[in-house]
Design goal:
Two copies of one chain form a homodimer.
Chain A lengths: L15 E7 L2 E14 L4 E5 L5 E3 L5 H4 L1 H5 L2 H4 L4 H7 L7 H13 L17 H9 L12 H14 L12 H14 L8 E3 L5 E6 H12 L6 H16 L1 H4 L5 H8 L5 E5 L3 E6 L4 E7 L4 H14 L5 H11 L1 E4 L5 E7 L6
Antiparallel strand pairs in A: 1-2, 1-11, 2-3, 2-9, 4-6, 5-6, 7-8, 8-9, 10-11
Chain lengths: 346, 346
């Protein structure tokens, strides 16, 4: 469990970290908690109440994917980098995402109807419009979580268990995933708060600091069992090799992994969560915006990466628009910016 | 200017008023400031820093529409209730909205290309899908502000000035609108913060309490000049008569005005603003969610209406899902709720 930073007591109110301006004025403000941890649970940098449990939502996908690789399922089904990256993805439903998941399921002898994530219009606006223009309806393959679900189905097949119901907490697939989450966060989660994610799988409340610890162990699994070390390195390598598959066109996750050449592996989650792993530094990052806003989570993650010295000059040049993100109106005029709040120290 | 409530000093941090649960836990929290005022500027109910300036965004549309009616433009062009309601609208771009604005512009001898709001895919998902399925592209008529802009064009025509550039602060149309805003809020706004709205018109920073005062004067314009009184009553009557035109299918504004039969006239704005006028009570409401979330603004407005005794049993039955709004995942399972924060007194 991450150590407390003795010099700064945990505040009840999380600090305002991001502000959104319009013209002469700050229009909106976002609060967040964040923690950067090393592999021994030392908190290197923090703000707000990082001991409060949060649902990591989709930001947990790289940790969840460990089960797929560690059990040998990925090897047994000869999964590619693109497929493993999709298992860690909240993809935008662009054709390459959808086609890759469909081909993967076919190789398992399964199809779209075996997914239990529900249908979703592609998050990528152009792909959604193309689908509708073609007179087609969105299906479960377009769901941003379809790659993660294909991973769960692969694991069920490999374990030799019934695939149906693989999203239920008591199913062997979710139990395996839960066990890995407990070991990576260093927590017994049997009494943790629970709920259901947008795609139907369980979500488990984990203190933000322990999420950062899990990400630090993902960044550098030096003290993990050998199979875990190999699995984590395989996943990290796949995310770095196929950043488009983890998110999509114009998406922050994809852009950061491309710009840093995998020196920062980052993953977004719903309701303003972001996790990151810095393999070279052996550090893990976890943040949660109080109100759930993605625009604030992205801005804070960009600034944390900058603060941690991950962004060299060339990378900074590519990510500058993420540190101070301009807002445009429908006529294309720049009307404001998403940026560091005046109150925030970095 | 609204009086301060001497018994409760203005806090710097706005209170947490809305929480979003998932399963066993609160997942996200929203802070807001709010003020309920009578026509003499007495603050009846408030929370947070209601003296901080905010951009009212589209929540100001009913006030902006006063210029259209007060000058005689609405009468000269024989505007219907539906058209006046559209001048106050952030409509969903459903066919009836779009067709009504198109016919109105045609009567002015103008067309879609005279609008300066920019194109927008209809906010109503079904209408957007139908448009794309038909192989058509969204245009400026689909912009949720096209009715307000048709109102501005009507005013320009009636004033006998150039229509081009009607969105610019120095244009006679915007100057007329600004003058009305100053008189309704009781403020000299020449030094107020300014910026541009999503649809290109100026936005002006106004303390939330003064917005509530403007809405109280809109609710009951008893002390206003005769032409203003008549204009406000005409607009209020049009909004009550055509609530669909003010927003659209399944929208909170439409639902509230339908359920209360116009006893509460409410109007949403971007970045978590909501304004309301209670004609029978002579009260005005203004609220702004710090982080800009619409889900929180709607929930707080519903609860303020309930707290103010506007919702009788039949109305409550229709709006209950707005006071505790269930959240569903893509598979249709109820996974959480948007509700009163534990910290909030009502």
């Amino acid at each position: 469990m991450p150590n407390e930073d003795a010099s700064s007591p945990i505040p009840t109110d999380n600090p305002v970290v991001v502000e959104v301006t319009r013209g002469d004025m700050v229009e909106s403000r976002h609060r967040a908690a964040y923690a950067v941890c090393d592999g021994e649970g030392r908190v290197i940098l923090s703000g707000g109440d990082y001991q409060r449990p949060v649902y990591a939502r989709s930001a947990l996908k790289p940790i969840q994917a460990i089960a797929l690789v560690e059990t040998g399922a990925a090897e047994a089904f000869d999964l590619s980098d693109a497929e493993i990256a999709l298992a860690c993805a909240s993809h935008s439903g662009e054709p390459r995402h959808v086609e890759t998941v469909a081909a993967w399921l076919a190789r398992l002898g399964l199809s779209e109807s075996d997914l239990e994530c529900g249908p979703q219009l592609p998050p990528h606006a152009g792909s959604a419009a193309d689908l509708l223009r073609a007179g087609r309806a969105p299906n479960q393959l377009h769901n941003n979580c379809s790659g993660k679900h294909a991973g769960f189905l692969s694991l069920a097949k490999h374990l030799g268990v019934e695939t149906k119901g693989y999203i239920r907490l008591e199913h062997p697939v979710q139990q395996r995933v839960l066990g890995i989450l407990e070991s990576m966060t260093g927590l017994d989660l049997s009494d943790a708060a629970k709920g259901f994610d947008g795609c139907g799988i369980p979500v488990i409340g984990v203190p933000l600091g322990n999420l950062a610890l899990a990400m630090a162990r993902f960044a550098d699994p030096y003290d993990q069992p050998e199979a875990r070390q190999a699995a984590v390195r395989r996943i990290a390598q796949a995310m770095a090799a196929e950043p488009f598959m983890v998110a999509g066109s114009g998406r922050f996750c994809t852009e950061v992994m491309q710009a840093t050449s995998g020196r920062a592996l980052v993953k977004t989650g719903a309701e303003g969560v972001y996790c990151g792993a810095l393999p070279t530094e052996g550090l893990g990052i976890a943040l949660k915006v109080d109100d759930g806003a993605t625009r604030a989570a992205e801005n804070l993650m960009a600034r944390l990466l900058d603060r941690l010295g991950i962004l060299d000059e060339a990378t900074l040049a590519r990510l500058r628009a993420r540190l101070e993100a301009p807002l445009f109106n429908r006529a294309g005029r720049e009307v404001g910016v998403v940026r560091r709040a005046a109150e925030n120290p970095f």
